[in-house]
Amino acid sequence: MSRSAPSPIYTLRGAGGPLNCLHFSCHGGDTPLLFSGSGKGAIHMWNLNTRRAEKIVEGHCGSSVVWVGTLQGSETLVSQGRDMQVCLWDLSEGRSEVMDSVCTGSVGFCQCSVLETSPGTRLLAFAGQQTEEIKIIELPSKTAVCTLVPDAKLGMVMCITLWQPDSGPGPLLLAGYEDGSLLLWDVTQRAKLSQAKAHPEPVMCLTFDTKCLRGISGSSDNKICSWMTDRQNNLQLQDCVTLLNPGVSQLCIRGDGKLLASAGWDHRVRIFGWKKLRPLAVLQYHTDLVLSVAFSDHQDPRQRLLAAGSKDQRISLWSIYNEAADTG
């Protein structure tokens, strides 16, 4: 490692359950926020100035919250629970009310994905009731757009992400499956564009850098594998990094495209340079599985944070590599 590993600058406690998901909202207003979803169904809105929960809401009948996010340019929170519901919350003027919900039919852990297609209109993709299907609807109308089902038996849909290419027609969707396969779908044509076998075990998580058309996935094995899409939308496997211990819950690329963070089943957070996947640091604090990682969206790079959520019911906050250094 190039430097000694740092310690958390502070921790957040009191979530009351495993921290399945994290989401920062620090670019608007005076109050930087961190949203967390717990295995006990609670969504905490942490004020990063006071380092306390500003609000706690329960919207999934005690079922595990597997994903939280905010809609760009609005004061709307989106949460997904294992109660088969995706909830949209109105956070304007101090409110925290569920203003709409979508039934997914799926009780799995596959996180949904939201993509803004035009001002006020978004696509929502989620794992459907059938094992291998992905459903996509339009919001706020809830109009069905398509259902994507692979020809071959690939097992359960494990993770998905929607994105809009700079050139070409409509949105594309990347999906990871139980058999270790990655599929790239054309949403407009409802067609599979390409497929690659990235892991021998289920794809537990993936993330995609739309700027360089490169992604990375993790599994229950001890490897994280990078891959890219070419101009013909073919998935091409690139490098694999072997980890000391198996199991990756989540992967996150920092907004500037310089760092990659992994949440490990071995209680550790690992930091890599995104360009060359060079190991930079191993962050050790948690006493159980690390389930989630997220980089903050502060406009000032010096304020950027990394958050890690664990099964030990704690969130650790880290300030790392915020100077203009070559991280590889």
UniProtKB/TrEMBL annotation:
One protein family per Pfam: WD40
Keyword Repeat included in the entry's annotation: yes
Coiled-coil intervals: none
Record's keyword terms, sorted: Repeat, WD repeat
WD repeat start and end residues: 283-320
Keyword Repeat: yes
PANTHER family for this protein: GUANINE NUCLEOTIDE-BINDING PROTEIN SUBUNIT BETA-LIKE PROTEIN 1, TRANSDUCIN BETA-LIKE 3
Protein name: Guanine nucleotide-binding protein subunit beta-like protein 1
